[in-house]
């Protein structure tokens, strides 16, 4: 049986970053993942799944030596963020306002995962088990024994980074609070007439927000939030029919586009009641899924990674037993409130903008208008969203 210090279930962006960050501390790590990410080739079309990566996440990926590889492949930097409902209440946030060179990058999820995997493959203290899956596990006072589909692993503790429907969370008996949002999101990859842009924008309309994420060269990722029935209707359209709908519904500033690919995703809110239970630790979507309105999901996951690494590094540094439950609980304490705050903030925006009443509409437009003219508030909100506050 393979014996390691830490067993990580799920080798997505968060799981791979977690495994790497703990291996960097000298821990012997095993990472279990069902599907390896596809290799990169420059001829590939852009993936549908992309993320707005914050400055804080960029720092973590730099520290893990994965950032440069992603940059060598492809990504799109942006310096500005535009938000509006009525044209008169347009607010624009700029990287200069927080003395940063940019606000973030739009990057395909797979490329982040792949760059992390390349680093993992170079570590002698990491065992990558893929394709492999967690079937079940049991924990005693000092260890965890996991039954995988093809083998068994013994570890001091187990990490669930296995996404929103986390099996680790279920087997550990960790409950969740949450709900499904009435809206779904449609991701649409388009070719644009306009040159590569340095702005990401979001317009709030009665059905749900319309978002633009710039991609390299003449490409972009659009996010269309709508109620589930409307997303179902849009999903059934051909690319040509969808293109007509996009041109009719998205703001004119988008310009002419050609639809290349599309896919629909349900929106759910989930928050684990515990991030640590015995020798089980949850990170990323296994611990929390958030409305993607402000592109914070994986950024929160990467903050979890940095927090866990910090807690374990300090424990090792002070001669403590790093896998004691009291140590692992410090990670939970450092992350739970921050995640809850961001989730609640996103829900407040979602609820406020979903309300069709005229007085509420007036108030929120005044809010956007005021935010644009309140430099201190604006700077604070921007720095928080970028993870540099
Ligand atoms: C429409 C939409 C737009 C978004 N946009 C943004 C954005 O702009 N910015 C942002 O920060 N976030 C965004 N997010 C959120 C972001 O995509 C997620 O937070 C992120 O992908 C979660 O990463 P993860 O590694 O925690 O989980 P996942 O990506 O779900 O990875 C989990 C991994 O675990 C593996 N796995 C699961 N079960 C097992 C098992 N039993 N055995 C072995 N392996 C297993 C899976 O194969 C998978 O690889 C968006 C989400 C949506 C829906």
UniProtKB/TrEMBL annotation:
Domain (FAD-binding): residue spans on this chain: 3-336
Alphabetical list of InterPro entries matching this protein: FAD-bd, FAD/NAD-bd_sf, UbiH/COQ6, UbiH/COQ6_monooxygenase
Presence of the UniProt keyword Oxidoreductase in the record: yes
An MF annotation (GO) of this entry: monooxygenase activity
Keyword Oxidoreductase: yes
Pfam families: FAD_binding_3 (PF01494)
Cofactors, names only: FAD
Keywords for the protein's UniProt record, in alphabetical order: FAD, Flavoprotein, Monooxygenase, Oxidoreductase
SUPFAM superfamilies listed in its UniProt record: FAD/NAD(P)-binding domain (SSF51905)
Involved pathway(s): Cofactor biosynthesis; ubiquinone biosynthesis
Family: Belongs to the UbiH/COQ6 family.
The name this protein goes by in its record: FAD-dependent monooxygenase
Lineage, highest ranks first: Bacteria, Pseudomonadati, Pseudomonadota, Gammaproteobacteria, Alteromonadales
């Amino acid at each position: 049986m393979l014996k390691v210090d830490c067993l990580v279930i799920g080798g997505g962006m968060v799981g791979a970053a977690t495994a790497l960050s703990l291996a960097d501390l000298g821990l012997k790590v095993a990472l279990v993942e069902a599907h390896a990410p596809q290799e990169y080739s420059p001829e590939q079309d852009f993936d549908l799944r992309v993320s707005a990566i914050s400055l804080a996440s960029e720092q973590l990926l730099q520290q893990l030596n994965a950032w440069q590889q992603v940059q060598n492949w492809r990504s799109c930097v942006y310096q500005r963020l535009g938000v509006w409902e009525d044209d008169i209440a347009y607010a624009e946030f700029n990287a200069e306002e927080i003395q940063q060179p940019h606000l973030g990058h739009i990057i395909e999820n797979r490329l982040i995962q792949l760059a992390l995997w390349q680093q993992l493959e170079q570590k002698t203290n990491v065992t990558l088990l893929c394709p492999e899956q967690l079937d079940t596990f049991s924990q005693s006072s000092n260890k965890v024994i996991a039954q995988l589909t093809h083998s068994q692993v013994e570890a001091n503790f187990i990490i669930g980074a296995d996404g929103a429907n986390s099996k680790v969370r279920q087997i550990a008996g960790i409950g969740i609070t949450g709900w499904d949002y009435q809206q779904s999101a449609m991701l649409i990859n388009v070719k644009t007439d306009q040159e590569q842009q340095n702005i990401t924008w979001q317009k709030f309309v009665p059905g749900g927000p319309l978002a633009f994420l710039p991609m390299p060269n003449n490409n972009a990722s659009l996010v269309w939030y709508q109620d589930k029935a409307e997303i179902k209707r849009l999903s059934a359209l051909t690319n040509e029919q969808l293109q007509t709908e996009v041109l009719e519904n998205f703001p004119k500033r988008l310009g002419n586009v050609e639809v290349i690919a599309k896919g629909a995703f349900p929106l759910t809110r989930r928050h684990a009641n515990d991030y640590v239970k015995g020798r089980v630790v949850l990170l990323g979507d296994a611990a929390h899924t958030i409305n993607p309105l402000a592109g914070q999901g994986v950024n929160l996951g990467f903050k979890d990674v940095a927090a866990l690494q910090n807690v374990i590094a300090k424990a090792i540094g002070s001669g403590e037993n790093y896998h004691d439950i009291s140590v692992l609980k410090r990670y939970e304490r450092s992350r739970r409130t921050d995640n809850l705050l961001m989730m609640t903030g996103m829900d407040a925006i979602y609820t406020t903008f979903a309300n069709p009443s005229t007085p509420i509409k007036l108030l929120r437009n005044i809010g956007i208008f005021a935010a644009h003219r309140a430099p201190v508030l604006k700077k604070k909100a921007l720095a928080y969203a970028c993870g540099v506050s």
